[in-house]
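Example 4.3 (complexes with small molecules)
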Amino acid sequence: MTILDRYVETHRGSGRLHERALRLFPNGVTHDIRHQAPFPLYVERAAGSRKWDVDGNEIIDYIMGHGALLLGHQHPAVVDAVAQQAQLGTHYGASHETEVRWGELVCKLVPSAERLRFTSSGTEATMMAVRLARAFTGREKLIRLREHFHGWSDALTGQPPPEETLPASPGIPAGMLAASIVLPANDVDVLEHTLSDEGSNVAAMIVETTGAHWGTYPLDLDYVLRARELTAASNVVLIFDEVITGFRVTPGGAQVAYNVTPDMTTMAKILGGGLPGGAVAGRAEIVDQIAIPVENTPGAVRRERIAHPGTYNAHPLSAAAGAACLELAASGVHQDRAASTAAQLARELNRALREEAVAGAVYGHSSMLHIALGMEQQPPDGYGWGWRALSVEPPRVSGTTSQALRRGMLNEGVDLMAGGLMVSSAHTDADVDRTIEAFRRTLRAMKDEALVA
Ligand code: PMP
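Answer. The structure with 4'-deoxy-4'-aminopyridoxal-5'-phosphate bound is encoded below.
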């Protein structure tokens, strides 16, 4: 039986739900990444490292809420906090103590966070960061890095020439795209030249802290250090997009691991403990452009400000889940546990690739792993290259091959996140063993269909 036939056979309930969904949503899905041929998985419940689909299949989950669930599914502290808050009300249309506690935790953990505003998502956080930076500097251009992802707002979607690697989305005014300068990552000379030629027009430089696609193409620490110096010298606001890395790489994010303080940081995912939430944080003088000037105060200067409404900003349920999660994440124990499981997984997955004679490498940072089928070079320690750029870029893998890997792993009860693994502190040694076995069987099935070499 082929990988595809087996998938269809063992996921009939998902197939039936997808028929209904196709009449409603584009591709029948509610998030691009869930698009999967012939149909995606429909999940009924989840706990710890596992989830169960509508067909009763038990699955080890490495999507983990798209990276939101550092503590795993249904951590009791988070569940209790949400249940208690739900009893007290879901939306007061007013300020509340939990948002203060949540904000205090963020400022305690994240070095660059002098002030912050909560948003509903990471996209909203990066959108606001860009606006704050433009207003603060009075400049319009943004420096972005090739393939770095920052959500789907107009300002941050599409990659204009010369580094265009993704189609610029229809529906975005040309001027919006022209306001971005997209540079190759890890090229200090290009950054230096760009800032010396255009620096006085550049409001901000925004980066995915550990590299494009949560570190698939790692940023080199030397590049990050130099970017900090160069942006500071040109008065360009440096924004670390820590939507994925925040509270994961260390309790204070990648900025603590790098020992580099950006001017602004955007966060989401772990921040909300699995409920919707984001935050834009940074230097007080930048974030305070949101503050409404106090009229009639002696000496108060009338000035323009940046409005920031949002029905669900600091939603009480998200604040309760987020604060409970950050309280647990503050010690670093959960990050360390997840990272050591990831390291063990990477070494064993690399061993499986070697023993099954399939070209490829599994590598990553902290609790984020990437599977690069076809890549010849394996990480020196079986895990990662440290905070260093890759000397060999992972080859592009065909859609057919990556779909087969995902489907094959699902047939074996493992759900991968876009060719990688988001590991949580709830993953166990038993999960590692089962995952390795699943990977070996999937590689064999893929070899049988000539989908890997
Ligand atoms: N920035 C980065 C680095 C992300 O990975 C994402 C989402 N995957 C976003 C921003 C957007 O966050 P959200 O999905 O919460 O809008």
